[in-house]
Amino acid sequence: MRDPDAKRARDRARYAADPEAVKARVRAWRAANPEAVRAIGRRARLAHPEIERAKRRAYLLAHPERRRAKNKAHKRKVMVSRRQWLADYKLAAGCADCPPGTVWPSAVLEMDHGTEDKLGNMSQMLRASWEVLVAEAAKCVVLCANHHRMRTVERKDHLKRRRNTTGNTP
Fold first, then answer.
1. Exposed/middle/buried for 144, CB within 10 Å: 0-12, 13-18, 19+?
2. Please, what is the Cα angle at 82 between 74 and 80, to 5 degrees?
3. How high is the pLDDT of residue 71?
4. Distances (CA, A) of 161 to 9, 151, 167
5. Which of 23, 67, 92, 104 holds its CA 20 to 30 A away from the CA of 59?
6. CA-to-CA distance for 56 and 164, rounded, in angstroms?
7. What phi and psi, each to the nearest 5 degrees, are found at residue 74?
8. pLDDT per residue over 113-126, tens digit each?
9. Exposed / middle / buried, residue 106 (Cβ in 10 Å: 0-12, 13-18, 19+)
10. How remote is the C-alpha of 169 from its chain's centroid?
11. Are the beta carbons of 48 and 54 closer than 8 angstroms?
């Protein structure tokens, strides 16, 4: 079995004699063996995760613009996937008031909260947590734009009639 201390001493002596030749040899080996270089790095990262976290934190603190760009890209990706989920949800449900078999594009379909308490519009809720978004969607009825307007008008007329019968006229 080889003596690791003897190898280190031999490597140090080579480096002291001609550092540029050693650096060139290392560069050539790295270029010829990229998989081995990645494996060595991977083993080092796995062996010392706390050092990797500290390095990453220091890098992000030194380069805040990269962190902001990364966060912005992640938010954009999340918003695109949630918009797609909402469009698929509306298409799967279809308009509740239209005859069966009527198919509308998702842009025509709207979420009607009815009289239930709502936390916000669904377009605003896309920024909320996933659980809140799904819970808010469950409160809604999917309607086409025409039926949504008609239900809203009926609801408002009902509220006006109720106010008038109680004597609270403005």
1. buried
2. 50
3. 92
4. 96, 15, 10
5. 23
6. 65
7. -65, -45
8. 887 788 888 888 88
9. middle
10. 49
11. no
Rounded Cα distance between 154 and 115, Å, is 12
* Three-state SS annotation for 145-161: HHHHHHHHHHHHHHHHH
For residue 133, the tally of other CB atoms under 10 A from its CB is 19
Q: Report the 10 Å Cβ neighbour count for 148.
A: 19
Instruction: State both tokens at 59.
Output: 């890098």
- What residue spans of the chain are helical by DSSP H? 4-17, 19-32, 34-47, 49-62, 64-93, 122-125, 130-139, 145-165
- What global pTM score does this model have? 0.59
What average pLDDT does the structure give for the chain?
88
In this structure, how many other beta carbons lie within 10 angstroms of the beta carbon of residue 104? 18
In angstroms, how far is CA 128 from the centroid of its own chain?
11
CA distance 24 to 40: 19
